[in-house]
Specification:
The complex is a heterodimer of chains A (250) and B (556). Chain A is mainly alpha-helical. Chain A is 72% helix and 5% strand. Chain B has a single domain, classed as Sodium/glucose cotransporter (Up-down Bundle). The chains are: A mainly alpha (250), B mainly alpha (556).
Chain lengths: 250, 556
Amino acid sequence: MESEKNDYHFSFFKPTTESSRRNRNMVIQFVLIWAIAIFGFQILLKILEKPTPEPAYIVYETYWGDIQAGNIELTNLQNVGQSALSVLGKVAIEPEYRQALDNAVSWMAWNIADSTQKQRLIVAVKEFEDIASVTEVITDDLYVGQKNQLIPILQEIFNLHPNDVRGKIAALEVKSSLMRSFNTESRKIFEEAMELYLIHNRSVLTDTKFLGFPFHYFYTAVFLLILFVGITWLYCVRTDMFNKKYGIED
Amino acid sequence: MKKTLLPVILLSIPGILQAATASTQLEGGFKVGPSIILITILILFVLVGIFFRAKDTTDFYAAGRGISRVGSGMAIASNWMSAASFLGMAALMYGSGYHGLAYVVGWTGGYVLLLILMAGQIRKYGKYTAADFIGDRYYSKSLRAVGAIIAILISISYCVGQFGGIGLMFKWVMGIDYKLAVIIGGTVVLTYTLISGMLGVTKNMQIQYVIIIISFLIPLFILTAKFDYFWLLPQIGYGSVVSDVVAGLPINETKELINSLGHDYAIVPSPEFAMPWDPSTGKTFFQWIAIAFSLMIGTAGLPHVIQRFYVVPKARDARWSVVWGLFFISILYWSAPAYAAFGKILSAHPEVGTLAKDAIVVYTAQLGDIHPLIVGLLAAGGVSAAFSTVSGLLVAGSSAFAHDLYYKVINPNASARKQLLYARLATILMAIIVAVLALQSFALIGQLVAVAFSLAGCTIFPLFLLGIWWSGSNRQGAIAGLITGGTVSAIAITYFIAGKSGLQLPAHEFISYWLEAWYFAWIGAPLAILVHIIVSKLTEETPLEIRKFLIEKVHG
């Protein structure tokens, strides 16, 4: 009675039969492949990564000191303005950062413009703001027409090529109320925004292309799923083979 | 300081008004074509449901165990591919870039664990529900009751996100208020679930899978072809879209392609979309790992997923149905990131403004100027995805109540008719609770659903894992493990709800980060397993008959 009581103990790590032992080994193999493929790769990504600034950040970083000191050259101010527009073109900027960035590009536009450009700019911006405030749909002809008048002025001020999408973005971000001052608080938030949105974790794994993808993205979004289906398929095939070999009925 | 300036700023910037008009334009009013498609699909579901109506309790719970492997795989996929997969995943990638891929990996990688560690053994064990297994394996009526209650809580938590998705799609199709849309959508899915019962739902699920996958893929083929990418296999073709987002796309390279609002198909360089744990997303490496891990073990602990293995005739079929199920699921998961990538470029112009992330799949198709009827089919697919999952969850939850709680614990003499009545009453009650919670819009769909996964990972997963693989796992260990997992869950969920209600609890930031509601299982599950093992070792051993059953029937 006592011996029966001590029988029938079973554990994954202490299999009682040959088939259980083989099954345990197979499970360990597959779980290891699974875990290393998922977590090992992400850890590798983390180890290799390096905070890498976008070219727009390098331009900003080079000339920001001059802007703060108040001795920036116009061409360089244009370049920093372009950098700020690079951030404003990104999707989903936090509202407080957008405000500081709007302030920066509005102030820069005003300071870059010569007296003639200033006059054209303020008129065009104000007229666009007036129309925008009463426009219900953004495809409205009047709204689009006024916006199209403002775009070339800003392209000229920021020295942007017509193919550069930032010219069109500028028309929506330059505000008449934000042109005349760019105070210390806004500048601080602007600095934070530039650092937050223009520096990214990159490595050889993110910069190598594979089938059009950045490699790491392909690996995680496509390959891992193929691997999962492959593991499950192989597990089933091998389990069927084992069961047949050991005469196990399902 | 930044925050105090905000209201003034918002009032002073006309640009904010423009943003609102752009998204309103996309939202539109009542849409006739999409409404007809949606209604047709819903009627089809109900008719098929009536045709395969449940006749008795065995049918209601486990569909008579008469479903083929491929069919069961499709049912697994349909049951699985919820609003979180259809709408929520693209939303997470659209909003948080590479971080969103943790959900893709988590929601597929879990199937490997489920298959290798559980599927065949669960079928061999031969119970109907998760609570059935827990009550039997741990020889405890109380644990059966607790298991049933946890299953109900998981079902409710999982359903909240689904109702949110249904609400968003009904809102888009009918041009009505979100709250009204949740109530209408919830009523329809409840009616459908009540009528069809489990057998009807299983049969429907194969039809639903086909509808879901077709509606999801057609717009993607069109988008890749239209914007000049490799359209024959959009799941690979969108790789160039991702690279375009990263490197930026000047206007001259897009051959005058525009979105439906007239904006150029162009974007400034936006590496934050694809680079890992980008600072601008506010997400970290730890969160990526914690989410992927929690979702994976949660997958292997979800009662409505585990329950699918009872509907196949043999353990071998249970195993192969996972392979098929995962393959069918992956077709959607390979495709979802493409919507996020296209959505990023098509909504890049500031005029588009802030879009509801959970509807980004539909907005992307709209911005890509795809025919409204096809966009309507896409929205109907979203509803269908939510429907198939909700019906499965309501059945799992109601059967946990009627079968595991009422019949097995409260009233063992209850007739089959009475059990079915209680199952239906529980379904109605659950749907009402879910609708009330969905109206609060606590978080994104994907995140809300992830809460259910962490809950399952902390509670059910350890019970199944140790219950199947270790004869030494006993009742006392199970209780201790459940208390541990339950406590971690309760802390995480309490902090989450408190945070949403504006309350600051002690160490709020610390707990909210390390035990966030969508990934608290990263620590909760290992702790529960550890406590379960220690207590089992210190207490009396598992009864002989259970050990014998495990060796002879489950692992024999």
